[in-house]
Specification:
binds NADP nicotinamide-adenine-dinucleotide phosphate
């Protein structure tokens, strides 16, 4: 049987095997999709063993998305642009890499009635997910994209590659910015569980706030968004489902229906508390 997997560390609680099983069930495909623990040191060897064992496709998550770029023999334009791979496809004896995070984010925002066209967007973070999000926002026609990051040099490098209408702003200087239409947290700060250091001006109420994280990791940012009276708040669980649908279509050539799967994974996450 063809095998599929998600690689990362930690990975035991990944929802991806459940999501892909649900997609497969829609088409009567029994999916062998597992979560495989691999760190940066072991990823290359683990992926090679997986390919020898019938591995036809894989997702890649923290902390391996940039390492995956190097292990690919071919890259999609969007993966090359954002320097990050979350989807691997076995083509003969080689791996092709794609990045479905950006389109997954846009599709989930659309589900929530948010179209980035013409919006003034603040992006927090400059890692792999932030880069995918940034390109997606510019492709979608955002009016302005302000990138800020704990390590300012990374935000500057990203804005330089993006070009206008992207620009950077120092984290602390955000206090002097007017309200944004959409604030997107693409940092991994929430995984530490600390309160979110909200950098917005008092009274600069954002229209919508979106955290790429979900579960406990999204709580600090969403709590800060609530305190700032944001009009809409969403976590990244929907993005997880939508990027998975995109990967599924690359591997199996059919597009799954995501609506019932959003409900299923939300119930699983809620049950975990
Ligand atoms: P990454 O490449 O490791 O980047 C992490 C980013 O977070 C960097 O910009 C880093 O800043 C910043 N950061 C880390 N700790 C921080 C702190 N305490 N305070 C402020 N900034 C901090 O990670 P990634 O792959 O981009 O992932 C980022 C987040 O997106 C993760 O939570 C991940 O789970 C989530 N994600 C979700 C989906 C989805 O489908 N929902 C998909 C992809 C990613 P420095 O540059 O200063 O280190």
């Amino acid at each position: 049987m063809n095998r599929y997997a998600v690689f990362g560390q930690p990975i035991a609680h990944s929802l991806s095997p459940r999501i892909h099983a649900a997609f497969g069930a829609q088409f009567g495909i029994a999916i062998d999709y597992r979560a495989i623990e691999a760190g940066r040191e072991t990823f290359a060897a683990t992926l090679e063993a997986f390919a020898r064992d019938g591995g036809r496709g894989a997702n890649v998550t923290l902390p391996l998305k940039e390492d995956a770029v190097v292990l690919c023999d071919a890259l999609s334009d969007r993966a090359r642009r954002c320097g990050s791979v979350n989807t691997l496809l076995r083509e003969g004896e080689r791996w092709a890499g794609d990045s479905t995070d950006g389109v997954g984010l846009l599709r989930d925002l659309a589900r929530h009635g948010i179209d980035a066209r013409g919006l003034r967007v603040l992006l927090l973070g400059a890692g792999g997910a932030a880069r995918a999000a940034a390109f997606a926002f510019l492709d979608a026609g955002a009016r302005e994209l302000v990138v800020t990051n704990r390590t300012a040099a990374r935000a500057q490098a990203l804005a330089h590659v993006l070009g206008p209408p992207a620009r950077t702003c120092a984290w602390d200087a955000l206090r002097h910015q007017a309200a944004f239409d959409l604030v997107v947290n693409a940092t991994s700060a929430g995984h530490a569980g600390d309160a979110f250091d909200w950098p917005l001006a008092a009274g600069a109420t954002p229209a919508a706030c979106y955290d790429l994280s979900y579960g406990k990791a999204a709580r600090p940012f969403l709590a800060a968004a609530r305190a700032a009276h944001a009009r809409a708040m969403h976590d990244g669980l929907g993005m997880l489902v939508e990027q998975a649908a995109e990967s599924f279509e690359r591997w199996h050539g059919v597009r799954p229906e995501t609506t019932p799967v959003h409900e299923q994974v939300r119930a699983v996450l809620d049950a975990r508390g």
